[in-house]
Amino acid sequence: xxxxxxxxxxxxxxxxxxxxxxxxxxxxxxxxxxxxxxxxxxxxxxxxxxxxxxxxxxxxxxxxxxxxxxxxxxxxxxxxxxxxxxxxxxxxxxxxxxxxxxxxxxxxxxxxxxxxxxxxxxxxxxxxxxxxxxxxxxxxxxxxxxxxxxxxxxxxxxxxxxxxxxxxxxxxxxxxxxxxxxxxxxxxxxxxxxxxxxxxxxxxxxxxxxxxxxxxxxxxxxxxxxxxxxxxxxxxxxxxxxxxxxxxxxxxxxxxxxxxxxxxxxxxxxxxxxxxxxxxxxxxxxxxxxxxxxxxxxxxxxxxxxxxxxxxxxxxxxxxxxxxxxxxxxxxxxxxxxxxxxxxxxxxxxxxxxxxxxxxxxxxxxxxxxxxxxxxxxxxxxxxxxxxxxxxx
Length: 393
Hints:
Elements: H1 5-13, H2 20-32, H3 34-43, H4 46-52, H5 64-79, H6 87-90, H7 94-111, H8 119-122, E1 130-131, E2 134-136, E3 142-144, E4 151-156, E5 159-164, E6 167-170, E7 179-184, E8 188-193, E9 199-202, E10 206-211, E11 219-230, E12 239-243, E13 247-251, E14 255-260, E15 267-273, E16 276-279, E17 287-290, E18 295-298, E19 306-309, H9 314-317, E20 324-326, H10 332-343, E21 346-349, E22 361-363, H11 368-376, E23 381-385, E24 388-392
Parallel strand pairs: 1-8, 6-8, 11-12, 21-24
Antiparallel strand pairs: 2-3, 2-7, 4-5, 5-6, 7-10, 8-9, 9-11, 10-11, 11-14, 12-13, 13-16, 14-15, 15-18, 16-17, 18-19, 20-22, 23-24
């Protein structure tokens, strides 16, 4: 592997002159694999970039610049003009360049294979998170789900619990409710289909407690961390979510995401479809009803009450479920908290937290080492010591 390839691709996209040596390196890399040629074509295609990035202006905002960009792409496609490289983006300033540089490094490192990695280097590589969870049954016994095959893994209240292609499903036949808890440690995420057909996706470091049979007039569950729900509609049995014993959510049938990590400042409930009622506590004091696209923010430790945000960035909220990191307008500290949960690491700041904002999107499927190479292009300096990521000045 030639470590200069991302820099050479970056210059190529900017239409800067390559030295003879750089041209030779690029030519050899393109000849080495059809995937390499496809990658360069993707990076050179404006429509591909539009799908991959939210382009920022030099003021750090999307909006008019992005719309101008997309309008130019649509106009060229309509007239049959050939798709050109991204020369027009560079005039929008350093932020757009930083986004592209991050993506170049990320896409390249995701595809490039390191066939001959020395053992000493391989030992320091930190792999990304994966599917996996721990199921705690009503009697307190625990079942690790990472390596089990499809099939019945337990029985609760007369109902079988099945593992089906990476998700937990409850079969019919339940006679009495028993409470189960599905939990994901750092570096894991998982999906469970509840007895009523509701599907819940758990992000890393999250938990969901629920009965194996819903009875009576309500469906009640408890969550910590971050969970995305697609709730089966049942007007006669509202779905109640107790969030960390600090907030409550009531729905009939809808799609929403709740982020309630203890180290985040607010509990955020974001509505994608339907309607939800969010309250400051599970008991229901002071509440707000959300419409699709809105986000309710509850600050358990403060007097702010519920703050409703209109036009929430749904793509950013749902990036984790879609296999992405979305660093648009994220502070370094916010981004590092995501990395701690996904890579199961500890982040240490050598001389305080640098005050900087990030940009762009990146797949969660890369190693931490490769991701930090990409972020390094944006000025994030770091080193690894075991499972400790040290951010340096």
